[in-house]
Amino acid sequence: DTAVSQTPKYLVTQMGNDKSIKCEQNLGHDTMYWYKQDSKKFLKIMFSYNNKELIINETVPNRFSPKSPDKAHLNLHINSLELGDSAVYFCASSQGPNLGQPQHFGDGTRLSIL
Amino acid sequence: QKEVEQNSGPLSVPEGAIASLNCTYSDRGSQSFFWYRQYSGKSPELIMFIYSNGDKEDGRFTAQLNKASQYVSLLIRDSQPSDSATYLCAGNYGQNFVFGPGTRLSVLP
Fold first, then answer.
1. Does residue B35 belong to the interface with chain A, where contact is any CB pair within 8 Å?
2. Shortest CA distance from A110: residue in chain B
3. Is B45 in contact with A99 (Cβ distance < 8 A)?
């Protein structure tokens, strides 16, 4: 009974391709996040949705587009992949967006661009 | 720019010792802080969170928050080799969440 699940776990693709990563949580949380962790292991927030509404949109290229069909799902679509997009992408969820609710992370998607 | 700073380490301690991990933050508006542990190749897992000034204990772990000095620390008592991991400090700023770069801890048997 995985709490936050991401697919795929590994993604190897060529520069210029378009790819999607899916995330689902069964914790009943209202808020979901996408993080990028680069080769230096720095974890940086990209997007956050609360009840399907975008609440955090950090400075990321507009090639990255999140979509939340319902509050249990948050997908990430990436257009025209570049070498610098290689990283581990983590999905996370929390009960709510305020007052620092603890976040629960998925296992990550390791994206490698050839 | 809201920042959370940590010494990247590695911090090496012998088994059974106390490991002390420190974190400083730049924004006094931050309300709460979290410590996550991340094993190599794995996802971050929450260890503790702290909202109020002072100490909070949970088993072998103690989180300390000093809002006046803007630092947070994590003490691990009786360190075990299985505690060897990267420890991430994170601060909440309203709806935003900022992670520090992490401190790599190595507990030597």
1. no
2. B41
3. no
Q: Is the Cβ pair A105, B97 closer than 8 Å?
A: no
Residues of chain A contacting B, Cβ within 8 Å: 33, 40-45, 48, 50, 55-56, 90, 97-100, 102-108
Residue of A nearest to B96 (CA): A56
Q: What is the pLDDT of residues B45-96, one digit of tens each?
A: 999 999 889 999 999 999 999 988 999 999 999 999 999 999 999 988 776 7
CB contact under 8 A, B98 and A56: no
Through-space distance between the first and last CA atoms of chain A, rounded to whole angstroms:
34
Judging contacts by C-beta atoms under 8 Å, the chain B residues touching residue A91 are none
Residues in chain A closer than 8 A to B23 (CB atoms): none
DSSP conformation class of B18: P
Tell me which residue of A15, A12, A13, A19 sits closest to A82, measured CA to CA. Answer: A15
Q: Enter the tokens of residue A4.
A: 């936050």
| B2-47 per-position pLDDT tens digit | 689 998 889 999 999 999 999 999 877 777 899 999 999 999 999 9
pLDDT digits (tens, 9 = 90+) for A43-91: 999 999 998 888 888 878 999 999 999 999 999 999 999 999 999 999 9
The answer to whether residues B56 and B45 touch, using CB atoms and an 8 Å cutoff, is no
CB-CB contact of B38 with B47 (8 Å): no
